[in-house]
User: What shape does this take?
Amino acid sequence: MNSITSCCPIVDRLWKSTIGRKYLVAVTGVLLTLFLAGHLGGNLLIYAGAEAFDEYAHFLHHMLHGAGIWIFRVVMLAAIVIHVAATISLTRQNRAARQQYEYKNTIQAKKSSLVMVWTGLTILAFVIYHLLHFTVRIDSDLAEIAKESPHAMVIAGFQSWLVVLFYIVAMTLLCSHLSHGVQSMFQTLGFRSRKTAGLLDIASIGYAAIIWIGFVSIPVAIKIFNFGS
Assistant: This one.
């Protein structure tokens, strides 16, 4: 992580303080939360048919003469790495500070933080797999199909029960992480107060539910209801 922070002086300065790392988690969380909404909106075009989805894919892959999509991917991947690394760093710091104060609430908070770390690492592994599956396309058959139609590639990519189940589990973990993470994000950025706490909690859970239903509906529709076949 030091090599990453050294490349960006602002990130490096933030990383050296606890509050700075909390802000890194919050700001990268905002970026990733907004990305999920945009990504879901694009993915749902699969229900609009092959032409609409393929046009969307063509637009993404030809932004800035093809450079735009890669710049975006690098930024998002860096945001994920910083988000996970900062969360792990803060959890380790909190665990060390709490070792001499082992009472019920502290233990519960520590368990909650550890769950967030492990779900975060699982999500990172999923993102890497997702990129290899649908972006890099290490499967030569999918790569060939994608040349003709990205819509057909997605349909073919979800023909395996193992892949479908992995996506459902990963999205469940992601949205569990999201429902707690968005609340923490609002608190760190100063938007959470006694008056807004209840509303923000409901909004966080509602947003996570929408993201889960939207993303999970695609592999389920393809594999179980034979959508696109």
Summary: The longest helix spans residues 104-136. The mean pLDDT is 84.
